[in-house]
Design brief:
The chain is α/β, with parallel strands linked by helices and 245 residues long. The protein has two domains: 2-160, SPOUT methyltransferase, trefoil knot domain (Alpha/beta knot, 3-Layer(aba) Sandwich); 167-244, tRNA(m1g37)methyltransferase, domain 2 (Trp Operon Repressor, Chain A), CATH 1.10.1270. The chain is 38% helix and 17% strand. It contains nine helices and nine strands. The strands form three sheets. Strands 2-1-6-5-7 form a five-stranded parallel β-sheet, sandwiched between helices. It starts with a strand and ends with a helix.
Length: 245
């Protein structure tokens, strides 16, 4: 998969895309992340990428010419690339959209800055808009990195095991069950006995019950859109009853 990131601050990307799982995936050629400096497409000697808004008002607006030229270069090399503007007006990013993007061969993430981009870029050069949440950031670079991280780990071979991926929060529609590792006792707190029993059927049942209970406690909204089986309802009822004791 190819991911192009268009930004005026390429230095913000250097660390995150060279470390950890993403860095290893790049080394193994599982993903090609290319950082494109929008300033390289500015025509003036000062490499200007912003200007005052027509009609007055505070702040600056990203100029259309450098953005159009940088996006055009991406599309010239691959007309099928999906160009996505990181914008508070976009679709709210979630796991479903992460899966959607992971199925594409090439995405181009456009990082806005200041008061935003010239509207002509939004209406004529962009295929999609995505937001990572209802809050204000200084630019689209951090949202782009969030999307890269979320999408990259869904690509075949990046995590090395599809089993762990299938059990993660939001994949099943539930939050994930609690995890424990050595030592068995930490500051007088013991690992649940069931996890040390060796009874894999009982462990699977406990984990499912804990995932249901944790979702009910922390994100009950997820249960409203999740059609639970009769066994799941029984497990959840048992867990809730135990909490009352």
């Amino acid at each position: 998969m190819i991911i192009d990131i268009l930004t005026i601050f390429p230095g913000m990307m250097a660390g995150p895309i060279t470390e950890s799982i993403i860095g290893k995936a790049r080394e193994r050629k599982l993903i090609d992340i290319r950082i494109i400096n929008i300033r390289d497409y500015a025509a003036d000697p000062h490499r200007t990428t912003d200007d005052r808004p027509f009609g007055g008002g505070s702040g600056m607006v990203m100029k259309p010419e450098p953005l159009a030229a940088s996006i055009g270069n991406v599309r010239e090399n691959d007309p099928a690339a999906r160009v996505i503007l990181l914008s508070p007006q976009g679709r709210l990013f979630d796991q479903e959209i992460a899966f959607e993007l992971s199925r594409l061969n090439h995405i181009c993430l456009v990082c806005g800055r200041y008061e935003g981009v010239d509207e002509r870029i939004r209406t004529h050069y962009v295929d999609d808009e995505i937001s990572i949440g209802d809050y204000v950031l200084t630019g689209g670079e951090l949202p782009a990195l969030v999307i890269v991280d979320s999408v990259a780990r869904l690509l075949p071979g990046v995590l090395g095991s599809d089993e762990s991926l299938n059990e993660e929060s939001f994949i099943t529609g539930l939050l994930e069950y609690p995890h424990y590792t050595r030592p068995e006792i930490f500051e007088n707190h013991r690992v649940p006995d069931i996890l040390l029993s060796g009874n894999h059927g009982a462990i699977r049942r406990w984990r499912r019950q804990q995932a249901l209970l944790r979702t009910w406690q922390k994100r009950p909204d997820l249960l409203h859109g999740n059609e639970l089986s009769s066994e799941d309802r029984k497990l959840l009822a048992e867990a809730i009853e135990k909490r009352k004791d």
